[in-house]
């Protein structure tokens, strides 16, 4: 999507157009974050670049492993099982791209999640993106889960994380509406 025509529009208009445009695409999801929150996310992901996201499907779940690129413009998601079975030959199934064209004029960053492999649905991609952002930007969750996962995996409480995610985050739509605040 070309953002140049939106330079003179209000931040609210840019957000609405960005989300409407991506809302109709079958293989993309979107999110808009204020610059300070996005910078906070990028800084934390640079320090702790890897995490996993459960994806809930029907009555079961599977995990995606996320990692940020060196340039901080891409966040890639892969199936954990793919990484286990072929650690040097896996392709991302979902990629979040960060667009900073609206930073100087509107103090926002545009995020687009591209579903590369149709093994996950649009809703599952949206939940993975929002869940990742929530866990990285919430101080308590970051300290409880992200830090141990990256610093000493033996200290990571997988069961507590999954319980927290299933009971607290994945079912509460109001948590998703906090991203612009």
UniProtKB/TrEMBL annotation:
Which controlled-vocabulary keywords does the entry list? Mitochondrion, Transit peptide
One GO-annotated biological process of the protein: mitochondrial proton-transporting ATP synthase complex assembly
The main place the protein resides is mitochondrion
The membrane-spanning stretches of this chain are none
Report if keyword Ligase is assigned. Answer: no
Q: Where does the source fall among the domains of life?
A: Eukaryota
Signal peptide positions on this chain: none
Q: Which GO terms describe its cellular component?
A: mitochondrion
Q: Which InterPro entries match?
A: ATP11
What is the annotated localization of this protein? Mitochondrion
Looking up Pfam families in the UniProt record yields: ATP11
What is stated as this protein's family in its record? Belongs to the ATP11 family.
Q: What is this protein called?
A: ATP synthase mitochondrial F1 complex assembly factor 1
Q: What is the scientific name of the source organism?
A: Stentor coeruleus
């Amino acid at each position: 999507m070309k953002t140049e025509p939106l330079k003179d529009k209000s931040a609210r208009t840019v957000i609405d157009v960005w989300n409407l445009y991506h809302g109709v695409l079958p293989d993309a999801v979107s999110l808009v974050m204020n610059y300070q929150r996005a910078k906070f996310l990028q800084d934390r992901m640079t320090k702790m670049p890897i995490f996993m996201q459960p994806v809930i499907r029907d009555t079961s779940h599977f995990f995606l492993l996320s990692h940020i690129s060196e340039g901080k413009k891409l966040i890639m998601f892969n199936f954990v099982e793919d990484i286990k079975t072929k650690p040097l030959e896996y392709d991302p199934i979902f990629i979040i791209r960060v667009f900073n064209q609206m930073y100087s004029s509107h103090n926002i960053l545009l995020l687009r999640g591209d579903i590369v492999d149709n093994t996950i649905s649009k809703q599952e991609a949206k939940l993975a993106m929002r869940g990742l952002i929530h866990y990285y930007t919430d101080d308590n969750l970051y300290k409880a889960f992200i830090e141990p996962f990256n610093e000493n995996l033996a200290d990571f409480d997988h069961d507590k994380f999954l319980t927290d995610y299933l009971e607290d985050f994945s079912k509460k739509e109001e948590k998703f509406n906090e991203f612009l605040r």
